[in-house]
Specification:
Layout: E1 2-4, H1 26-40, E2 45-50, H2 57-70, E3 74-79, H3 93-102, H4 104-113, H5 118-141, E4 145-150, H6 157-167, E5 175-181, H7 188-199, E6 203-206, H8 212-223, H9 229-236, H10 242-254, E7 258-259, E8 262-263, E9 268-270, E10 276-278, H11 282-291, H12 297-308, E11 312-313, H13 315-322, H14 326-338, E12 342-345, E13 348-351, H15 354-361, H16 366-382, H17 387-394, H18 403-419, H19 421-432, H20 439-455, H21 459-472, H22 480-497, H23 501-512, H24 519-535, H25 539-555, H26 559-576, H27 579-596, H28 608-616, H29 620-636, H30 642-656, H31 659-669, H32 679-693, H33 710-714, H34 718-729, H35 733-741, H36 753-756, H37 760-769, H38 773-789, H39 793-807, H40 810-823, H41 826-842, H42 846-863, H43 866-877, H44 901-911, H45 916-923, H46 927-941, H47 946-956
Parallel strand pairs: 2-5, 2-6, 3-4, 4-5
Antiparallel strand pairs: 1-3, 7-8, 9-10, 11-13, 12-13
């Protein structure tokens, strides 16, 4: 306990994290700071800080004392203790000390009396409270002050009564009470006090769990090293509670269970079903059990059995499983909810922390726990409960399924595999090993096992199981070919999902070479063969196979064969540049999926093709929405296409000029499985943005080499493109040209012709600068051929730009500027303006060149493309063309003159009432970039809101928004 005046250091209990450092909690502190500011203005009140044990209440209160001291306020700190619940006024000791200073004749006997007992205490209590109220009024007359009481739920009755009386003065005095309490249960005196405060308008601040990132910071502070994946997963079970995290990590560290921030291999215990659990350190278990000591023994026993059944708790089910009266179970649940052990999560009750559940469950012997869970499975079967819950309990036992469990699994296997494939895979593996399993059921369950492994994202094991089953043959002789064909179908998918496309093709072709396939099966395998060969750039085979798949699928009304063939053919047409046919095929895929919608093992991604087509058609906004649908679909399936779809979304953002969104999408790529080798391409695209912004710190050799898998092939042009630009930034134009020449043979062959066109402007610019008219002419021919297949604004612009530069025709380049503007590709519009300025300067049209240069620089500035700005200025200086002093030189730090041209445009559009998205559309910027410009405007003008910008601009005069 202690007191503090303005500027004094306050000694408070250490907070729940290491090194007395508060992690996060900014929103909570902001709310408390607002309340403290009201106190400074003379308004008293109460702040109630609520949170479970260990959540960080003390740490937040300690930070609050710093906020009050910074405002020159006096702080009084008290802490209630469990062992002092019967010591009168123990919790408000600091107030007693203050009373002694203000009214020593009254305070002295109170301080020296010590423990009060019996009726004597009543007289002293009344006198003490009266003295406290009078002294408080005296203290408030000298200025506002704050009383902080930590762990107020342990406060003695006398202190609670004193606080109640002080609360009656809050409307009259500049006094702020800050109380930290645990959730229910609460003693009657505390409940009454808080109810009274709530009626007066208490500021209730609830501390929730730390975020994952904050937890990671805490763990790193504890260990001095970042947590590894296994430790992070274990720490996640602590529910973001800093005390529990601290106890868990510290306990594991002290027990020798951690090595370099990761859980050592001998720290895990393995269950019979192959799952593994961490052995909790005793200190954490004891901490949790101590919190539950107030519960009756029978309640703890029922909760332990409930915990053994999982995170959720349902009264009727629990009553049936335990064969206990429902009223008894409900009473236990009510106490657990009031105690904060159980919480409501939507419509169900769950344990607040999985650590609490695990500690309770561990009170049961392992054999009893398994018996209880198997009994729960039987009960849930009879109640027709969700299949995944039954499966979870059946997996508790590592023995074979009995007849009841096997019959249940056979009846629900399809539903289980669809809803919970990972649970299904484990249960099916046990079922197949059951002795005396009839042949037909064995074969059916084996097929479902492979499906479950695929759907749960485990294609490697699915391949192993399928190959093993094929080597054994079907158990039923009469079904050998039928089962074998389906196993080959699943095996092909398993190979595809691992990126092993050649193996997938081999499986499909081996089946097609055998007699006895139905027409429908032939169509599906041809579709699979078509898709795999398209991605392998075996275009002649893909063309033939897709035609067979589509025709056979239509003849059999089979959407699998039709859609596989359509996807393969659509990707082929897209990358050949025939957008009409590609878009029709993509739209058909999306319609078929949305009308059918059933999840099928066919590797059909319904939205990606349409999204890519829309990007090439310059319909960027719709393309990005469609690609976002593709990403969401990938996230809910096996994730095979997830990285590819995120990369394609990043490319669309880049072409549209939304570079901040580009980088955000590329960062998301890192979290996706790299099945098709997109990671190197993503790093190169990230580097491309950095090169143009002048922030790339690597070397040409540091760029990741293209991957030889699918995405590495599709985006193979990115590596030499970025590498050449890096050489150019280093002043080595010859190396830049040599690097780009290697792509010339890629213009008409391979999978990348359509997408590679986005580097044509740079390639032809470098070629012209290097005097390589032949290369420039070849690029122009390739651009003309691409736009002839399907003219779009961007393709017409690219063709006009390349032809104009190759032939020195400024009129064609001027057309390119306008076409790029219509295409919604402002960065390419800036490039075209720069090249137009160069041609005009060479023709002696200085003023027109200067205007084109200014337009280019204005657009480049919006992207932060510092290298492009420097390059354009340098190129035009060779012709004696200068923009004058660049805006950033000698520009004031504040005021209107500090704004860049782009910032002035944004300010003018804000004054017109446009929103950030509307400004973004008008200026071909991303909303995030607009917000960045607006923040800079507010800072430079020392304003705080958009309204103030409008008013200030009206007083200053208006900016034009041309250019």
């Amino acid at each position: 306990m202690g007191t503090s005046g303005a500027g004094e250091s306050l000694r408070c209990p250490p907070h729940d994290g290491p090194a007395d450092r508060l992690i996060g909690r900014q929103d909570e502190l902001d709310r408390m700071a607002d309340r403290i500011d009201k106190l400074v203005a003379g308004e008293g009140g109460v702040v109630l800080l609520e949170g479970e044990p260990g959540i960080g209440k003390t740490a937040v209160l300690r930070a609050a004392t710093q906020l009050t001291a910074a405002r020159g306020l006096r702080v009084l700190w008290g802490e209630a203790k469990e062992l002092e619940q019967h010591v009168p006024f123990a919790a408000i000791g600091p107030l007693l000390a203050a009373v002694e200073a203000v009214a020593p004749t009254t305070a002295e006997p109170l301080r020296n009396q010590g423990v009060f007992t019996g009726t004597m205490a009543i007289g002293y209590e009344m006198a003490a409270i009266a003295t406290l109220l009078a002294a408080t009024e005296t203290l408030c007359a000298t200025g506002p002050f704050v009383v902080i009481l930590d762990d107020a739920h342990w406060a003695d009755p006398s202190s609670l009564l004193a606080l109640h009386r002080l609360g009656e003065l809050l409307n009259e005095l500049p006094l702020l009470l800050m109380l930290a309490v645990q959730p229910l249960p609460r003693e009657r005196g505390l409940s009454g006090l808080l109810a009274e405060f709530e009626s007066r308008g208490v500021e209730l601040v609830r501390l929730g769990p730390m975020s994952d990132s904050e937890t990671a910071v805490l763990v790193e502070l504890l260990l001095g090293a970042a947590a590894g994946p296994l430790l992070s997963a274990a720490v996640a079970s602590a529910g973001g509670n800093p005390l529990y995290v601290t106890e868990l990590v510290t306990g594991m560290s002290q027990a020798g269970m951690l090595e370099s921030g990761e859980i050592s291999s001998d720290a895990w215990t393995f269950e019979g079903n192959g799952s593994r659990n961490i052995r909790l350190p005793e200190s954490l278990t004891e901490a949790i059990l101590r919190r539950l000591d107030h519960l009756p023994a029978r309640s703890q026993q029922i909760l332990s059995m409930a915990a053994a059944l999982g995170q959720g708790v349902e009264a009727i089910e629990l009553s049936e499983v335990l064969t206990a009266p429902l009223i008894d179970v409900w009473n236990v649940i009510s106490v657990a909810v009031a105690s904060g052990i159980l919480i409501r999560s939507g419509a169900e009750l769950t344990f607040r922390h999985d650590l609490i559940r695990q500690v309770l469950a561990d009170q049961l012997p392992p054999t009893s726990r398994v018996t209880l869970q198997l009994r729960a499975a039987r009960v849930l079967m009879s109640m027709e409960a969700p299949v995944e819950r039954v499966a979870m309990y059946l997996l508790a036992d590592d023995g074979p399924l009995d007849a009841t469990g096997l019959e249940w699994l056979t009846n629900v296997v399809e539903r289980l595999v669809i809803r919970a494939p990972e649970l299904a895979a484990g249960l099916l593996a046990r079922a197949i090993e059951t002795s005396r399993l009839d042949p037909q059921r064995h074969d059916e369950l084996r097929l479902w096992q492979v499906r479950a492994l695929l759907w749960s994202g485990n294609p490697t094991e699915a391949e192993a199981v399928a190959r093993h089953a094929l080597s054994q043959g079907a158990t039923m002789v009469g079904r050998r070919q039928e089962v074998g064909t389906m196993l080959h179908w699943l095996l092909a998918h398993a190979c595809f999902a691992q990126g092993n496309l050649s193996d997938a093709v081999h499986v499909a072709e081996s089946v097609l070479a055998k007699p006895g396939l139905s027409s429908l099966q032939q169509g599906q395998f041809h579709g699979f063969r078509a898709l795999s060969n398209t991605l392998l750039e075996r275009f002649d085979i893909a063309e033939e196979a897709s035609a067979q798949a589509i025709s056979t699928g239509l003849a059999n009304a089979d959407p699998v064969a039709t859609d596989l063939g359509s996807l393969a053919l659509g990707l082929l047409r897209l990358h050949q540049g025939f957008l009409d046919e590609a878009r029709q095929l993509g739209d058909r895929l999306a319609r078929n999926f949305e009308s059918n919608g059933r999840r099928q093992l066919s590797n059909i991604e319904p939205y990606s093709l349409s999204g890519r087509c829309l990007t090439e058609l310059d319909e960027h906004a719709i393309a990005e929405k469609t690609l976002t649908l593709a990403i969401r679909y990938s996230e809910h399936t096996s994730g095979t296409y997830l990285g590819s779809n995120r990369l394609e979304l990043a490319r669309s953002h880049f072409l549209r000029g939304h570079w901040d969104e580009t980088l955000a999408a590329l960062r998301a790529c890192r979290d996706a499985p790299d099945i098709f080798g997109y990671a190197a391409a993503a790093e190169c695209l990230t580097a491309l943005v950095a090169v143009h912004r002048g922030t790339f710190a690597g070397t040409p050799e540091s760029l990741p080499a293209p991957d030889d898998r699918l995405e590495g092939l599709v985006y193979r042009y990115l590596h030499p493109w970025v590498q050449a630009l890096v050489y150019e930034t280093q002043g080595d134009s010859s190396r830049a040209m040599e690097t780009l020449i290697g792509l010339c043979e890629e213009y008409t062959d391979g999978l990348a012709p359509a997408t590679v066109s986005q580097m044509y402007p740079d390639l032809v610019r470098v070629a012209v600068a290097a005097g390589r008219a032949d290369v420039a002419a070849n690029v122009a021919i390739a651009a003309d051929a691409l736009q002839a297949r399907h003219p779009t604004h961007s393709r017409r612009a690219t063709a006009a730009l390349c032809r104009g530069l190759a032939e020195g025709d400024s009129a064609l380049v001027a057309q390119a500027v306008e076409s790029f503007r219509q295409a919604g590709r402002p960065w390419y519009q800036a490039q075209a303006n720069e090249m137009l300025a160069t041609l005009l300067a060479g023709d002696g049209h200085a003023e027109q060149a200067r205007s084109a240069l200014a337009n280019a620089i204005d657009l480049y500035t919006g992207f932060g493309a510092e290298w492009d700005i420097a390059r354009a200025d340098a190129r035009l200086r060779e012709f004696g063309i200068r923009r004058g002093r660049r805006g950033r030189r000698n520009r004031p730090k504040t005021g209107w003159q500090a704004l860049t041209p782009t910032e002035k445009k944004v300010a003018a559009l804000v004054a017109q009432g446009l929103s950030n998205p509307e400004i973004a559309t008008r200026m071909f910027l991303s909303p995030r970039t607009v917000q960045s410009h607006l923040s800079k405007i507010l800072t430079k003008l020392r304003l705080q809101s958009r309204i103030q910008v409008v008013v200030a601009l009206a007083q200053q005069g208006t900016f034009t928004t041309t250019g």
